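Review box. Two proteins, two foldings.
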Amino acid sequence: DLCFIGATEELATYIDVGIAINNSISPVPEYTNVNGGYGIFAARNTTFSLNYALDLNTRNRLLTDPVTSALGFVR
């Protein structure tokens, strides 16, 4: 299955801060992009989903090719 999702840069920053918190023992940083308040204002949208059966060679190539192997494809 291929699913294409878009999000704002603010959401990516918020997620990155959350990942840093989980990988660290340092104090939790506060992240907000709201002036005069605390919180996150961001957006995410699934523009479309496409279900398409890839052949075995294509799936293996996605898993092993140096360009795509780190992108998180699974069998």
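Next protein.
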Amino acid sequence: MERTRFMYIALRDLTPPPNDLPVVHFAPEMAILEFLSAKYPKTYRAADFAPAEYAWVKQPMQQVDLSRPLDFFAPNSVQGFVHAHVFEHVPGDLHRIVKQMNMALAPGGFHTFCIPFFSDWYREDMNLAMPHDERDRLFGQYDHVRSFGTRDTEERLLSLFEDFERIDMTKAYSPAQLAAAATSLTSHTVFHFVKKK
């Protein structure tokens, strides 16, 4: 997938060497799992809300409810968080979720992720009784609780990383470099933040 190719090159080029803290990969995809477990052989952790759905993963998976990150990760205890198309599935207050994940990362830690864009403006609805076809229409998929907007993601999500350096992908990669990886700066753009020390 295009987003997986983009995430691979970002993780390859922008992530630091391992330390003693875990690198947590939510809803793992095989190619990224293989890369991260090779780069962080002693500290890589696969995680998901429903680990049983990942029978193909040949290592222990941690069960994590990302609606309350600090119940699973102590402050300053994680080197990195990695996930693709996860935030739209997590019920709860997005501001609190991101802030708690930020607290869990140690100084110098990283958060690499991508999100889908399905609307101009952010919207969400936590009512799980909503019919699937209505949720498909509003959020792009029956199990999404929110849709990120192309016009306000900076305000709604990216501005929550207050104590982080954001890597500008338009400066990190030229169009030719992205084309060589069969990807581009589109809605599949990966966001990479590094917590300031």
